Amino acid sequence: MKLLHIDSSILGDNSTSRTLSAAMVKRWQDATPGLEVSYRDLAEARLPHLTGGSLAGADAQEAELAAAMMDEFLAADVVVVGVPMYNFNIPSQLKAWIDRISVAGKTFKYTEAGPVGLAGGKTVFVAGAYGGFHSGDAPTNFIEPYLRYVFGFWGITDVEFITAEGLAVSPEQREASIKSARERIEGSCEALAA
After folding, report:
1. What's the pTM?
2. Mean pLDDT of 153-176
3. Binding site residue list
């Protein structure tokens, strides 16, 4: 079994989404002997934003990197993504990754009946971190609907969000929210041990 772990926070060791995504990966490792884990830190190893040259494959090094990212994504059975909220949405470095994975003929195809996802059969866990209260159906939450749509477009319907929110409200709220998220990580991954 292969797991792809992606982090997108720019806060390094101070990142709650990184802490939560690492806890998710650890839980999978504990429950799955022989699990192969690939890690991609999108803040440290920044991707260039998509350009016309990117689409044309004009830069051989960029094209090689995009192909490697596609291969590791397609090979993964489980994807864990750490996603902080920046100005009500995902970090731009995560969007740059999504742009490299959204490739016709690889993760989706167009048909007369509409687009069809080609990357189904994966499980995705998203570890979110929000300074305010934005989860669920909040009108300020553009992350969860967007990522659900993108993964669904690729054919992936098994997507779970575990989010710590209200992190900037107070130290007490931060602590309680992180504790609750960690408990949900343990609970959501209980089936792994069975």
Report:
1. 0.93
2. 96
3. 9, 15-17, 85-88
